[in-house]
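Lecture 7 notes: from sequence to structure.
We start with the chain below.
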Amino acid sequence: MSIAFRRTLLALPALVGLYTGGWAYFAPEHWYENFPGFGFSWLPQLGPYNMHLAKDDGAMFLALGVLSLLAIRYAHTGLVVLITASVWLVFNVLHLVFHMQHLYVYDTTDKVLNAVLLSLLVVCNAALFVPVRNPSREQGR
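Predicted structure tokens for the same chain:
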């Protein structure tokens, strides 16, 4: 894997963290009613609104987004990337497992989107464990 591709893989969780986190923290009720956006709404089916939980979720996603931005900056540093990938992987695997157990609350389109998008996040995080080829040459970039 190249450093450039590693940065691309890190950009996905960074975007997810900043998008979800900013929305959930700064507009928690709107986030709860409308997440993930684009005409879909996936949270009300899972239980009642809780502002504290929504804002905590937003803060956690923002923190993960910041960690991902730092990992993009220091993508040549394997340890930073492995820490970031590990943290996201734990979260995304557990998140995927939860949603796979609760797909029954959604219609077919929402089931497919949940399964595909959450699985994609797991695969992207796992791919970050692939070592950089020629790390000494790549560090200079």
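Points to note: The two ends are 14 Å apart (CA to CA). The chain has a mean pLDDT of 94.
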